[in-house]
Amino acid sequence: MLSAILTVSVLLQLLAAALALRLTWLTGWRRAWALVCLAICGMAARRIVSLLNVLSGQSNIGGGLTAELVALGISIAMLVGLAWIGPSLKRTREAEQRIRESEARYRAMIEAFDGLVYICDQHYRVEYMNPALIKRTGYDGTGDLCYKVLHDRDAPCPWCPNEHIWNGETVHWEVQSPKDGRYYLVTNTPLTHADGRVSKQAMIIDITERREQEREIQRLKQQFSKIIEGVEHVDIHGVDADGRIVYWSRGAELLYGYSKDEAIGQDICALLIPESLRGSTRQIIRDAFDSGQCPPPMEFMLYDREGTAVPIFCDHAMVQSNGDPAELFCVAVDLRPLRAAQSAAAQSEERLQRLVDSTQDIITIHDANGRYVYCHGPERYGVQASDVVGQTPIDLLGPEEGGQLMEQMRDVIQTGEARTERNMVTWQGEELWFEDHIFPMRDEAGTTTGVGKICRNVTETVRAEANLARRDRILEAVTFAAERFFREDGWDAHVDDGLARLGQAAEASRVYIVQVRRDDDGRPLISQRNEWVAEGITPQSDSPELQDVDCRNSAFRRWAEALHRGEAIVGRVADFPAEERAMLEPQGIVSLAAVPIFAGTELWGMIGFDDCHDARDWPAAEIDALRIAADILGGAIHHERLAEHLLTVNKLESIGVLAGGIAHDFNNILTAIAGNVSLARLGGIDPEDMADMLSEAEQACTRARDLVRQLMTFSKGAAPRPERVDLAALLKEITAGLQRDGLSRVELQSEKPLWPVEIDRDQIAQAVRNILANARQATPPEQTPVKLRAENVTRRNGGLALTPGRYVRITVSDSGEGIAPTDMAKIFDPYFTTHANRSGLGLSAAYAIVKKHGGAIDAQSKPGEGSRFDIYLPAGQMPEVSEKYPSAAASHTPSNRRRVLIMDDESQVRHVVSRMLERMGYEVTTTTDGAQAVDAYRHAIQDGGGFDLVILDLMVPGGVGGQQAAAEILAEDAGARIVVASGYSETPILARPGEYGFCGHIAKPFELKDLQQVVEEALDGA
To answer: The pTM is what?
Structure first.
C-alpha cells in the first residue's frame, strides 16, 4: 500500500516537473520555471528514496502512511495546477504577442500616415510625435508643451477641447493655424494606458486644398446658378414624383409667364399641359420615377399663361443627392426662333439658288480626289452638268491644263487656305481665261473634305489688260521718241530708233512713215520715207509702188480723204474694199492701223502699223497712244520748220525784237491763264478738273514771274540785296538740287576756305544755275559730267572791266560741242539762242546779275572741245549789323486779331492781298496811296487802336509812294512795323530796306505762302 502510494507520488511529481520544464519555453520565464522544475525533481527524488526503502524492507519512513497520502495529495494538486496554469500562461503569452504585433502595426501606420499625429498628457506634455509632425516642426518636441510645438504659443490654445477628451469624448473640428495660415482637420480622442492613465491622441490632416476646392465648387455653383438664371431663352424646371414643380428658372418665367412664386408647388400638368395630354404626361412622370430612367428627348407642345401654344424641344435628367428624394428636371428650348430661322434659311436658300441660277459663273464642288460632285453653269459652253459630275479636270481639259487645276486644288486641300488663280483653257479651239476662286470645303469637325470653285470668265478683262499694257508700252516708246525728236540735230536723225521702239511696243510686224506732198503740178503724192520691220517680215521701203503714189489713185482715195479729216485708218484687211486689198494683201498685211501726222494745221503724212500674223482688233486706247506718237512727230516737224524760219530772221538784235519776244512769251502765259480762268467760270465743272485748271493757271503765273525776274536782272531794277554768304555751301546746295531733280551729273570742286563774298544769294544762285543749264544742254548724257569749280584768285591787271584785287572765281566747263565763233559775240544778248525750244534769256540774266555785283563773266569755247565760263565775284567784308531790321515796339492792338493796313494803287492787288490776309486771320484796311495810308494810321492811333503791320507799295504814279509814306508813319510812331512791296524799282530800298525804316520786303508777284512768311517774320520781330 505504501509502496503504491509512493510510486504514484513519484510519477505525479515527475510529470509535474515535466510540465514545469515545458513552461520554461512557453512563458519565456526560464529561471523561474527551471527552479520550480528542480524543486519538484527534488521532491520526486525524496519519494524515490522512500520508495526504495520500502521496497528494501525498511519501514521507518518519517510520517508513515498518513504523511505519504498528504504528499500524494500535494503532488496531485501541483500537477493539476501546472496542467491548468500552462494553457493560461500560453494564452497570456499569445495575447501579449498579439498586443506587441498590434502596437507595431499601429506605430507603422501612424508613422506612414501623411497627416500629423501626436500624443500628450493632461499637462500638455508631448509624449509622442509621428515623423510627419517632426518634419513639419523641424524637431522632435517630445517632452515639450504641445501648444508651443505646434503653434509657437506661450499658453494653451483657446480652441483646445481637453476637457471633453478627459471626459472620454472624441472631438472633431477644423482650425486655421496661426503659424502657417493653412487649414487643418483635427480629431482628438482619449487614449487609456495599461496603468489607467489617460492621454490625448490628436490626428491632424491638412485640408487647405480641400477648403480651396470647396470654395471653388461653391463659386462654380454660384456661377452656374447665375448662368442658369441668365439664360432667358431656355426653360429649366424640376418636378417631384407627384409632378409638383420644385424648381423654376428665369427662362421658364419668361417662356410661360408664371413667376417662380406662382409656379413652385403647382402641378406641372395642370399648369402647362393641355388637358388631353395630362393623363399620359403624369404616366410618363410616374414611369420615370419608378424605373429611374429619364424620358427620351422629345418635341412637345406646352401652353403659357395666356393660352398660347409654345412648341419646345426638351431633354430630361434625374437628380438625387445626399439621400434626398429624386427630382426630374426638364431642359426645354423654345422652338419658335428655330422654326423662324429655318423658314428664313429656306427662303435664303431659295434666294441663293436663284442667285446661283442667274450668275454667269461656273460653280463646282470637288471631292478630295478632284472629282466633280456638283457643277452649275457649264451649259453656256455646250456641256451638260450631268456629263461633268464624276469626272476630273484632267478628263475634261487634258493632262496639261487639267493637271494645273488639280495641283491648285491639292494645294488648297493641304494648306486649308483659299486661293485665286487665273487659268487659260483651250476650249473648242478658243483660248479662254478664267479667274478661279478655290476654297476649302470642311465637314462639321473642320476637316477639309474637298474644294469649292467659282470660275469667272475674264477673257475680255485679260484681253483689255493686255491691250492696256501694250498701250502703256506704246506710250513709253512715245516718250522715248519725243525726247529724241526735239533734239538739235532734228527728228529725222532719230526717227528709225523711234519707229523700232513703237513697233516693238505695239507688237506690230511693220511700222512706217508716209509723207504727203504736192508736185510742181499740184498733184498730191505719197511716199514711204522710213520703215521698221520685225524679224521675218519682208521690208517694203524699196518698193517703187510706195514712192510718189498719186493720192487720187482709187486705192488711196479713201485713205487720203479720211487722213485730211484727221481720222485713223483701222481694221482687218479682209474687211477693206477690193482695190485696197489688192494693194495690201501682197505685202502680207492681215490688219493695220494708220494715223495722220499734222505739222501745225497741215497734213504732213501718216504713220502706219501693220500686223502680218493676226487679224487683230486695234483697241481705241492703242489708237489714242499711236495718235500721240503721230502728234509728237508732227510737232517735231513743225518745230523744225519754225526753227528754220526763225533762223532766217534777225537774231533779236533790237529792242523791238526783244519786246516781241517778251510779248510772245507773255501772250502764251496769258493764254494759259485766261483760258483756264474762262473755263473755270463756266460752272458745272468737276472739282478735280477745276483744280487742274487752277493749277495750270498758277503754273503760268509762276512762269510769268520767273520771266519778269529774268528780264529785271538786266534792266535798271532788281538791285542786289547783298549779305555774307558761304559760297562753297551755296554751290554744294545747287549741285545737290540738280542731282535730286534727275538732271545731268555735275562734278563740284571747291578750294577751301574761299574768301568771303557779299552777294545776293538768290540772284547768284540763279546765275550759276543758268550757266549750268546751258552747259548741260551742250553735253550729251554719255559724256563726262559738267565740272563746277570755285577758287580764290587775285587779278593784278584787271581786265574784263574788273579792277585789280581779290576775287572768287566760279568756273563751269563742259565737254560738249562748243559754240560757233560767229555766235560768241551774241551769247549774252537777250533772246539769242541756238536752241529752238529755249527762251534765250539764261545767259543774258546771268551776265546782268554778275555785272550788278561788280563782277564779270568770261566765256571761252572751241567747236568740238566744249565751253568754259568763268564768273568773277569781288571778295570783301560787309559791315557787321546786330539786327537785320530795326527793333520795334510791342503791338498796339491788345486783341488777338491783329490789324494790317495795305496801300496799293492797283485795286486788284488790294483785293487779292486783303483776301490773303483775311484768310490768314488778320483784320485788313486798304488805301490807294501813301497820303491815305498816313491818315488811316494817324486816326487809328487817335482812336486807341493802331495797326500791327503796314504793307506799302513802293511806287504810286501821280501819288505819294511807299518811301515817303513810311517816313511820315514812323514820325507818328517810331515803333511802326512796315513792309515794302514792289515789282520793280531803281532805288536801293529793296536791297537794303532796313536802312529806310522798313522791317521787311516782298517782291511782286507773290503767293500766299510768300506773303504769310514775310508777315510772320515782320510781326515776330516785334
So the answer is: 0.33
